Amino acid sequence: MTEDLIIRKEQPEDYKKTELMTMRSFWNKFWPGCTEHYLVRIIRESKDYLPELSRVAELRGRIVGAIFYTKAWIDDGETKHEIVTFGPLAVEPTMEGKNIGGALLEETIDLCRKAGVSAIALVGEKDYYPRFGFERASKYGITDAFGNSFDEMMILPLSDTFTGVSGKLIESSDFEKLDDTEKLKEVNKEFPKYRKVKIQEGFMKIGSQHIGVVDAIEGDMYMVRYWDTLIPTKLADGLNEVPEVDSDVLFVRDKKSGSKITKVVRNLLRLRTERTILRPWEESDAESLFHYASNPDVGPIAGWPPHQSVEESRDIIKNVLSGPQAYAICRKEDEKPFGCIELKLAGNTDLTDRDDECEMGFWIGKPFWGRGFMTEAAREMIRHAFEDCGMNKIWCGYYEGNSRSKHLQEKLGFVYQWTTEEVDVPLMHETRTGHVNLMTREDWEKAKSN
């Protein structure tokens, strides 16, 4: 364990520091971003919080770990047996591997035992917690609140009073407040803005591997940025793709034998072309969106009216351009948006109801017309749809008179399917003639190989 580590109760002056550390600990670990820092705030205000069992870890004046306990119950249908649960258990990511989490667990398990707690329940990493005595909950006939059993759900009995207890694990109802996404957005504004990452491999930390960004290349040494630190790494044997500066990579951190890059990965929330970056829209993009979307030559031909204000653009970012596959088209040099491209999934398009098909829609600011930017972005989005999202068909349409969109779709390889008269265009309060094109995975792969 790290020398000089102090484990103590959290004080009010620690609150923001603990939340920031928790945010860093879980950021991008299970999905883009995280909610655990908000959960810490919810727990502190909960009637079920157990501050006498919860602790933070301090190292040379810095909060580097924390564990929060709350009341929980095992409901057997007749009696609710009170136990405790914990979570989040957070460790500053640059301090991983120093047994800070283990020290917090050992101390607080001992506190629970002395306080007469009958058992501790948790849902967590199934290969980590058994070393502290936790066992599969299924061994004790314990399920989640819905009757499900899985390996990540574990129990640590602490006294004989838990003998024979079985039933459903019930956690604090205050945890439901995590569903308030608008409140989460407000909380996030209080903290540094970190880059969100989503990769096909699924997690920020994959086993013993981490994900970082190549910051610089010096000979055969790759300087990988992991949070606030630059880690010298070399390429692992058998690497299929050589990383470049700004590449996202998986790496194994090893101070003794040397850290190694094991794979170049693609951030699915940050697609790249030669001149552009495609990324999710942010509310701070409202001024850029208004600048281009207010031009009367841009929106109406695609079926929507010009934006009238920055506030309207901001509202559209929040409520229209918030789909899982809606991307701002940005210049690489400053990441300012100048267009939009989106894969509309089943349920948000009239062209398909299949999960392996989507509709692609796009527009670009007038100053960028005729310069190849839209072709460049659309080709990357098509690749993303087929390779990353597993689509088999991409539909695309345009209204009569939109010759730019027609020619671009033909250039990309879309094939005409049908024409429909009197298509309702609700945002423009009129009807138009609509044309529909299609690209299949087979056609795309065939064109790619030629």
* Share of helix, binned: 10-25%
Biggest sheet overview = 9 strands, mixed
Straight-line N-to-C gap = 58 Å
Please state the CA-atom Rg, rounded to the nearest Å.
26 Å
Considering the protein shown, what is the CATH homologous superfamily of the largest domain? Gcn5-related N-acetyltransferase (GNAT)
Structural class assignment: alpha+beta
CATH topology of the largest domain: Aminopeptidase
Top CATH class of the largest domain: Alpha Beta
CATH architecture of the largest domain: 3-Layer(aba) Sandwich
- Helical stretch tally: 9
Strand content: 25-35%
Q: Whole-number average pLDDT?
A: 93
What is the general shape? globular
Number of strands: 23
How many domains is the backbone divided into?
3
Question: Poorly predicted ranges (pLDDT <50, ≥5 residues)?
Answer: none
Quick tags:
single chain, 450 residues, eight-stranded mixed β-sheet, OB fold (Dihydrolipoamide Acetyltransferase, E2P), Aminopeptidase, alpha+beta, nine-stranded mixed β-sheet, 9 helices, globular, 23 strands
SSE order and pairing:
Blueprint: E1 5-8, H1 15-26, H2 36-44, E2 55-59, E3 62-75, E4 80-91, H3 100-114, E5 119-123, E6 135-136, E7 142-143, E8 153-157, E9 167-170, H4 181-188, E10 205-206, E11 209-218, E12 221-226, E13 229-235, E14 248-252, E15 259-265, E16 271-272, E17 276-280, H5 286-293, H6 310-319, E18 326-331, E19 337-344, E20 357-364, H7 373-388, E21 393-399, H8 403-412, E22 415-425, E23 430-440, H9 441-449
Parallel strand pairs: 4-5, 7-9, 13-15, 20-21
Antiparallel strand pairs: 1-2, 2-3, 3-4, 3-9, 5-8, 6-8, 10-11, 11-12, 11-14, 12-13, 14-15, 16-17, 17-18, 18-19, 19-20, 21-23, 22-23
Helix pairs in contact: 1-2, 5-6
